[in-house]
Amino acid sequence: MLKNTYKTITSLSSGLKLSQVFTLFSLLLVFQVAEAGTRFYGASLDTAKWRTSGNRIECRLSQNIPGYGKATFRHRALHAIDFRVSSNFVPKKASQALVFVDAPNWKRYANRKILGRVPVSTNKETIVVPEDWAYRMALELREGMEAVWSHSDWADAQDIVTAKVLPLRFEDAWRDFLRCGENLINYSYGEVRSSTFYFSKKSMRLSAKEKARLNKLAEYVSLDTDYDHIKINSHTDSRGVRRLNLSVSKKRANMVKNYLVNKGVNPDRFVINAQGEKKPKYNNRTASGRAKNRRVEVTLVK
After folding, report:
1. 61 and 151 share a domain?
2. Which CATH number characterizes residue 88's domain?
3. What is the per-residue pLDDT for 42?
4. Which of 182, 210, 227 is the endpoint of a domain?
5. To the nearest whole percent, how much of the chain has pLDDT over 70?
6. How does pLDDT run across 87-131, given as a tens digit for each residue?
7. Is residue 289 left, alpha or beta, with left meaning phi > 0 and alpha meaning psi from -120 to 50?
8. I need a surface site. Which of 32, 67, 181, 289 has the fewest CB within 10 A?
9. How confident is the model at residue 58 (pLDDT cuts 50, 70, 90)?
């Protein structure tokens, strides 16, 4: 059975040298050709196309694989480039895929290069190839090779599925992808997720540094709209009249909201809680405690 052959080669290859793995995998390909249930996926020479997309948070270089899904080089801000495969079919259980680069029919004298095995997950993005393999795949595609991966089928693992992306028109698309990466932002979601702004007595002003932090948050949500809301919690100390403290708390919260709205943030994406002097976090009996209680907390909620 093909399934048993594939499992045997997969289990044996962990203890073998690369040349031996190549021999075993070549045997597997022979069995694939002989097995009627084997499935091959890849774009045709006429339809294969690499598409670059993205913004300052994430760049993508993708090729559609008819009947299978999509393969993508991805570069997120402050992260390394990886290669990932999203499948039209979600596997019932996790397995492994063998990843390699292979020569097209016209590249007669090039050799197949096996990169290794990676997990096949039960998520929509079934395969994720690490940075060093992703760069190797890109290098080989630029040289006219095909990037290929092979794994058991999604239903019952009785057959082998082999998919590939073609190198046609890859070079120009790769250059566009790298140019996109040069413009990625140099900060992450974690840096804009939560900010606290402190106010002196009766103050309604933001400092230049505080405005710069809000500018960064406004830029981030303009690029990554996949968030639920922006929460603004406003507090005061306990000095003065409680009703007036609540009014000051509301004004500070709305001042921060209006600043972000003027920078392009959707006004419907805010949740404001003006607490006034209620729920103090610090001791209002001390000057330092009161200073810390006069604050507005801004949180980006995903």
Report:
1. yes
2. 2.60.40.2540
3. 96
4. 182
5. 88
6. 998 888 888 999 999 999 888 788 899 999 999 998 888 999 989
7. alpha
8. 67
9. very high
- Measured CA to CA, the distance from residue 29 to residue 39 in angstroms comes to 12
| pTM: predicted TM-score of the whole model, two decimal places | 0.78
Question: Which of 137, 156, 182 is at the close of a domain?
Answer: 182
Q: Count of alpha carbons within 13 Å of 100, Cβ hemisphere only? A: 17
Number of domains in the chain: 2
Strand 160-165 versus strand 39-41 pairing type: parallel
124 and 169 both lie in a single domain: yes
Contacts of 235 (CB under 8 A, 6+ apart): 249, 275, 276, 277, 279, 280, 281, 293, 294, 295, 296, 297
* Token pair in block for residue 191: 């840096």
Q: Are 65 and 41 in contact (CB under 8 A)?
A: yes
Q: Are residues 251 and 167 in the same domain?
A: no
User: What is the reported pLDDT for 158?
Assistant: 78
Average pLDDT of the segment spanning 141-151: 95
Phi, psi for 189 (deg, rounded to 5):
-55, -40
